Automatic annotation (TrEMBL):
It comes from the Bacteria. Pfam families: Gluconate_2-dh3. PROSITE patterns: PROKAR_LIPOPROTEIN. It comes from Jejuia pallidilutea. InterPro entries: Gluconate_2DH_su3. The lineage of its organism: Bacteria, Pseudomonadati, Bacteroidota, Flavobacteriia, Flavobacteriales. This is Gluconate 2-dehydrogenase subunit 3-like protein.
Length: 195
């Protein structure tokens, strides 16, 4: 998937979201080393699958870090554990299970999956034809909804991380002046605002 397309599509559907203080504290707490991450909500297989999917949705590029660089999987795990009530946690688990059920996981576990397995899944559900997408919605396909939600959450966590907010997007915590009717290139060098 192309990062720009993913961000553009998500930006169109998300609108403006107010971040609760608890979400900000969770974002700030997700600064651990990936190698030492122990999931608190996801199972081992779930954490591997989530990590691989968000890495494909938001990969590292020459100009910006990827989802794994800003600990998006860790944030999603901690957010589901701390912010979701029991009902939402149960629904979220069902969504994640539907994703795992679509993957060819053997007795070796999710570690044995190949990038092609994830790419096929993402292409099937995140790049469907209009007819297929309409059918997924009509059938209330859980995997389709789960991957849409995962993509939305990953982009939200990515764009609200401190690293992206300060180093990739235009950042001015206390804007001193207002300049109307100027181009984005003139105002920020072509970058979107992080705040």
């Amino acid at each position: 998937m192309k990062r720009r397309e993913a961000l553009k599509n998500i930006g169109l559907t998300l609108g403006y979201t107010a971040i609760a203080p608890s979400a900000l504290s969770i974002l700030q707490s997700c600064t651990s080393e990936v190698k030492t991450w122990t999931p608190v909500f996801f199972s081992k297989n779930e954490s591997i699958v989530i990590k691989e999917l968000v890495n494909l949705i938001l990969p590292k590029t020459e100009t910006s870090p990827g989802a794994l660089d800003v600990n998006v999987p860790e944030f999603l795990d901690l957010y589901a554990f701390k912010a979701y009530d029991d009902k939402r946690q149960k629904t979220y688990k069902a969504e994640i299970d539907s994703i795992l059920n679509e993957l060819p996981i053997t007795e070796l576990g999710a570690e044995a999956l190949k990038t092609e397995d994830y790419t096929t899944l993402l292409n099937t559900y995140l790049k469907p034809s209009k007819t297929e997408a309409a059918q997924y919605r009509k059938d209330k396909n859980l995997t389709y909804r789960a991957l849409q939600n995962l993509r939305n959450q990953a982009v939200w966590a990515f764009t609200t991380s401190e690293t992206i907010g300060k180093n990739v997007l235009a950042y001015d915590p206390v804007p001193a002046i207002q300049k109307g009717c100027i181009s984005v290139n003139e105002a920020t060098g072509g970058k979107a605002w992080s705040l």
